[in-house]
Input
Amino acid sequence: METQVQLFVKCSQSSNFRVKHAIAIILHNLNQDELNVLALASTLNISPSHFRRIVLSATDMTPSRLIKHCRLESARELLAGVLSVKEISHCVGIRDVSHFVRDFKAKYGIRPTEYRRKMSGHLAFPPHILARQYAIHPCQTRREQ
Output
């Protein structure tokens, strides 16, 4: 299971700036419904087939799997916060919560609520205390940084 940082390092080693740019675009636009392979290839001014080749060679994933990977990794990070599973699935661009839960379980072997419960024991401050103290919405804050 690769984190997004590991993906960037892997892409840096392959010195493929277009793949790094694609990952940055994906992470910045996770909640967009129109985030897809054709849109990314078009943004990078390359053909979809060439885009598929360079992403596959740099990350060992197809562009579609890369998008899903970034969405699920971001969701995993957001589960440390106070958002509901439904809110998190919308923040990362997966509109159907049941699909989100199914995909999350397939990738991590555990349901999002179980993951949150498991991780809450490892946090120095419970999420509800942090949210109350700082009055922030994690989904919005992620995009503004």
Observations:
- The longest helix spans residues 63-78.
- The chain is about 70% helix and 0% strand.
- The chain has one domain: 1-145.
- The two ends are 25 Å apart (CA to CA).
